[in-house]
Amino acid sequence: MHRPLAITDDQELLDDLLRIAAAAGVELDVAHAAAHARPYWSGAPLVLVGGDLADALAATGPPRRPDVLLVTRGSDDPSMWRRCVAVGARAVVELPQAERLLVDELGEAVEPVSRAGTVMCVSSGGGGAGATVLAASLALTASRRGLRTLLVDADPLGGGIDVVLGEEEATGARWPDIAGREGRVSFAALQDALPTFGELTVLSWHRGEPAAVPAQAMRAVLDAARRGCDLVVTDLPRHLGGAETEALSRAAATLVVVRSDVRGVLAAGQVLAQLRRHTADLRLVVRPGALAPEVVAASLGVPEVGVLPDQRGLAHALDRGAPPPLGRTPLGRLCSDLLDTLVEAS
What we know:
Blueprint: E1 5-7, H1 11-23, E2 29-31, H2 38-41, E3 47-50, H3 54-59, E4 68-72, H4 79-87, E5 91-94, H5 99-110, E6 118-124, H6 131-144, E7 149-153, H7 161-164, H8 175-178, H9 187-193, E8 196-197, E9 200-203, H10 215-228, E10 231-235, H11 242-250, E11 253-259, H12 262-275, E12 282-287, H13 293-300, E13 304-307, H14 314-319, H15 330-344
Parallel strand pairs: 1-2, 1-3, 3-4, 4-5, 6-10, 6-11, 7-9, 7-10, 11-12, 12-13
Antiparallel strand pairs: 8-9
């Protein structure tokens, strides 16, 4: 695979470019003279031309190509725009101000968007409503359909969503191992680090001391997953912090599981008031109870997209370490219907 090309003989600029490339998880080919760039020019996914060699490069008459950037170190030299045109660059990038932009450019060059992952959040309208089981079941159903799926456990007090899948002993990283990540991360690297089962990759919590997920880490994970996945399912806690609002802001839809009794509806109303501050598309999944699903939906002012009936054998399966029974079960049919409605029809 071809690597991005840096063309510069300015050692300070090169040091900056190598550092920025490392932050993007990218290796560079380097040409210290304009003439040395010719073998790499056409094949490189991105070319970074240092301002010091722009005139010399233009003098060699390189063929026009897309994805060339002229990079300087904070220069206000107006001749840089003339050099930008001369080498066929699409922009002048000034460091250090544009470091984050350059990290994204480099990452995108070597890992272009191969998918356009749909982010779906699942939240509980009250304690014990079954949101975590629904989130895990949605992700498992999607992966069995051949959709590349990331299941994200955003609740440090939930005991680990890997337990719901019966995979708590699976080898791979958990949140504490990657909570320090920020900036761009490739989905391939994320998938290699996390427990993965076929098309399903899982980011769960360990069973140690709980801690909040930094917002930057959630942003990095979700951005990587959107580039590399078909579906991202995030299981939210009832109390929202920075990481949870990052997920909600990216969600195409947020499912709220509600018990259909008076107390369940009142609790869900408070949860929905929080969620509405951060996301627009809210849907209800109703657990059967004293109130009809249409009454619950009308009371909360949120459309109902499914009913999650009690399922015989579900609790027993989870207690013995098996994943939720899906297929033709009520839970399996609900997940299939939700995917048809919210993901594959979009």
